[in-house]
Write a structure and sequence with these properties.
Elements (H helix, E strand, L loop, with lengths): L7 H4 L8 E7 L4 H10 L4 E2 L2 E8 L2 E8 L4 E6 L7 H4 L4 E4 L1 E2 L2 E2 L6 H8 L17 E4 L7 E7 L4 E8 L2 E8 L3 E3 L5
Antiparallel strand pairs: 1-5, 1-6, 2-5, 3-4, 7-8, 9-10, 9-13, 10-11, 11-12
Amino acid sequence: MVVQGEDVEGTCYPLRGAERWFAVQTQPRAEDRARLQLANQNFRAFLPKRECTIRHARRIVSAVRPFFPRYLFVVLDLTRDQWRSVNGTFGVASLVMCGNDPCSVPAGVVETMVASADRCGVLQLGHKFKIGESVRLAAGPFAESAVIDRLDDSGRIRVLLHLLGRQVRVLTDGKNALPIARTA
């Protein structure tokens, strides 16, 4: 379900000072509710979504679903924000923790998704890539940054990954890659 009036750019403006992105695990099928409740508490949250086709009982329906089921992202400054209140938010199961503190998402990951999303948070993965462009693989065992080596007409791309001290070529669907956002 797409929430009318949701504006990714308005809720996810650039991070300031000690702000970082953190992952939040939600209750089952409560991602939108959790995002709205966090926004009501003045937390900036981002719920990446994807378009999918659902086949059921001889019907084909297009739907918008969370890209990471049961997860969304929230901006927090651990020195300023009362981050424990996130865990008490309707629809939230808990922040993803590393010991006693929340785990921040590596820099650039959420920013790349925000840059690739439309106004409703739907990731636009049909990006027109160029050879030599840096991308971040969003799926599969090699979910990390890579450089495009080759493109083909069927939408597949070959990327160069730096693994075990050498360049390795991996062939994948272009929909699995996100362009890396350039920071100024």
